[in-house]
């Protein structure tokens, strides 16, 4: 066996509502005393809106590392659900690859759902995915956006989506981000951002938009053309000249990373990177950790859809 391979041993997917009887680990914060009433409140609001699940597998590289993953997604206070998530494990050119993504739609759910159905499939089909992963990611993100926009020509209402993704390939972790969903890693209890939000008031993003002939103005928040509160996204054909789907990519060695959190801005709008890591660093069950973060974001007043994926590594 090639030691650089990521090898899948077992997958144990589950699907459960947040309001089930599964108990939180005892290492959770003191807010767990209030968890049951909050669960009841969430369930009463919409029992079909919140789901969670997870699984586990093994990485084989320079050392063996077991990883587990969990996800939770909740419609929250929004009237419709525009978030999608993806947890995929697939063999590519004889090598197992794990892919995790959170897609936060705006103007409807069409774009986010399209990304869930096509982004990793397109990436795993790229001829250079294994040997030149970064180039493949950039090319596939752009091509997937073009394909989506081509299929959207008959739509009257514009729509778009962010994409925060993590690819596990051997000992490597590649994070690719478009928009203001976010990926944060924990190293020895410290929160390490693996993506930087694409906001219109970010100086380099504002310069790029203005050089392309666009403008950024304040309209309750900073917006491209007075319309869109993110500066990079898939879709958004009416603003495509300024709102690109080119990802920013960061690569990390898995060694030393305890876990990563991938979440939509429904979580990050009310929970800081540091708080998110501290909140779940002692919760060894990745699914329980994702549920904990969803519940906390909701309790802190998040008014958006909330979706979260946690991937936890056990290096040996």
The radius of gyration is 19 Å
Count of the domains: 2
**Which ranges are low-confidence, i.e. pLDDT below 50, for 5 or more consecutive residues?**
1-36, 40-44
Distance between the termini: 18 Å
Order of helices and strands: HEEEEHHEEEEEHEEEEEHHHE
Overall SS class: alpha+beta
Beta-strand fraction estimate: 25-35%
Cofactor: Mn(2+); Mg(2+)
GO molecular function: metal ion binding; protein serine/threonine phosphatase activity
Pfam family, one: PP2C
EC number: 3.1.3.16
List keywords for this structure.
316 residues; alpha+beta; Phosphatase 2c, domain 1; 7-stranded antiparallel sheet; globular; disordered N terminus; PPM-type_phosphatase-like_dom
Furnish the topology, listing elements before pairings.
Layout: H1 35-45, E1 50-60, E2 64-74, E3 83-92, E4 95-106, H2 110-124, H3 133-151, E5 160-161, E6 163-169, E7 172-178, E8 182-187, E9 190-193, H4 203-211, E10 216-218, E11 222-224, E12 234-235, E13 248-253, E14 259-263, H5 265-268, H6 273-280, H7 286-299, E15 306-315
Antiparallel strand pairs: 1-2, 2-15, 3-4, 4-5, 4-6, 5-12, 6-7, 7-13, 8-9, 8-14, 10-11, 14-15
Helix pairs in contact: 2-3
GO molecular function: metal ion binding; protein serine/threonine phosphatase activity
Protein name: protein-serine/threonine phosphatase
Cofactor: Mn(2+); Mg(2+)
């Amino acid at each position: 066996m090639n030691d650089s391979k990521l090898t899948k041993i077992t997958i144990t997917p589950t699907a459960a509502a947040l309001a089930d009887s599964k108990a939180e680990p005892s290492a959770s914060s003191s807010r767990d005393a209030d968890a049951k009433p909050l669960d009841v409140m969430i369930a009463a609001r919409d029992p079909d809106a919140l789901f969670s699940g997870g699984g586990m597998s093994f990485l084989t590289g320079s050392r063996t590392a077991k990883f587990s993953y969990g996800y939770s997604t909740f419609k929250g206070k929004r009237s419709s659900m525009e978030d999608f998530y993806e947890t995929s494990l697939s063999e590519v050119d004889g090598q197992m690859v794990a892919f995790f993504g959170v897609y936060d739609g705006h103007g409807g759910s069409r774009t986010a759902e399209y990304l869930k159905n096509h982004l990793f499939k397109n990436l795993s089909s790229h001829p250079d995915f294994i040997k030149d992963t970064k180039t493949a990611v950039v090319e596939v993100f752009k091509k997937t956006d073009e394909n989506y926009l081509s299929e959207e020509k008959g739509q009257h209402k514009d729509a778009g989506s962010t994409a925060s993704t993590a690819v596990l390939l051997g000992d490597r972790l590649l994070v690719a981000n478009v928009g203001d969903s976010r990926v944060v890693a924990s190293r020895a209890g410290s929160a390490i951002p693996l993506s930087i939000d694409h906001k219109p008031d970010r100086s380099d993003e504002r310069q790029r938009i203005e050089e392309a002939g666009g403008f950024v103005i304040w309209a309750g928040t900073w917006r491209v053309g007075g319309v869109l509160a993110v500066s990079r996204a898939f879709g958004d054909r009416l603003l495509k000249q300024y709102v690109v789907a080119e990802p920013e990519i960061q690569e990390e060695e898995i060694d030393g990373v305890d876990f990563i959190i991938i979440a939509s801005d429904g979580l990050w709008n009310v929970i800081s990177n540091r708080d998110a890591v501290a909140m779940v660093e002692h919760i060894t069950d990745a699914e329980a950790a994702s549920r904990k973060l969803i519940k906390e974001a909701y309790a802190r007043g998040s008014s958006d859809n909330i979706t979260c994926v946690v991937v936890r590594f056990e290096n040996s």
